[in-house]
Amino acid sequence: MLRLLLLAAALAAATAMAAPDNPPLPLPKPPQADQAPAAGPPLPAEKPEERQEPAAPEPEKKEEPAAPTVPAPPPPPIETEDQATFDACTAELKELGAAFKLLPRIDDGEGCGIDKPIAMTRLSADVAIEPEATARCETLLQLARMTRDLIAPAARLGLPDMGRLEVVHQASGYVCRKRNSADTGKISEHARGNAIDIAGLEFEKGLVPMKIVGQEDSDLAAAFQRALNAAACLYFTTVLSPGSDGTHEDHMHLDVMKRTGGYRYCR
């Protein structure tokens, strides 16, 4: 009996020694065909392919009709001067002692020209105009009258130390161009022979340029310039005094342009 117990104890000890400390875990069984896979996070559903609709054909673009070309207005015709009026004008110039010559008709195209131009070197026996000025007789007659009636007497009062007036210096008579020498716009009155620009007055004792004066300028020279600016409109229908705009800072523009109702533009 004792021998049986000892043999049983020895077999138990041998079995315990042969067993590993961490017996292997059994491998999971593969899922059977009829078993559902283990639950996991839901997979996103596949987006169905969008059906590409065929692009609609673009409507045919209708060509816009070209805008009709508007022809530029024809240039104004050269003014035909009345012979009797012209003869009376030149006769008065001769009475004033003016020196001038008659020129052939000027036609430079684009409306530029003078029907009966004259070229003047003296406004009177006492006062020359330099350089020689070409314009219509009416334009130069008005300047000769203003020199006799206004400029010379006013200078004796406003510029008493300058002596006698000898020369009127002109900056522009006839010239074919647009107003203010612009590339476009209306034709200048210079292009019709209706305008003359005065740059300065030469006296026995020196040159007095046309200049900008303000109301705060209170000497006699400024008073003389203001007198010319104002009184010139009694002789000319357009007067642009020095400083009237950016293109008239060092001269006085004078012209005999005809306006409706005898309107005059003086600045």
UniProtKB/TrEMBL annotation:
Record region (Disordered): 18-82
Keywords, ordered alphabetically: Signal
Top-level lineage group: Bacteria
Pro residues: compositionally biased ranges: 21-31, 68-78
TM helices/strands, residue ranges: none
Signal sequence extent: 1-18
Pfam family, one: Extensin-like_C
Domain Extensin-like C-terminal: 88-267
Biased segments, Basic and acidic residues type: 46-65
Record's protein name: Extensin-like C-terminal domain-containing protein
Organism: Ciceribacter lividus
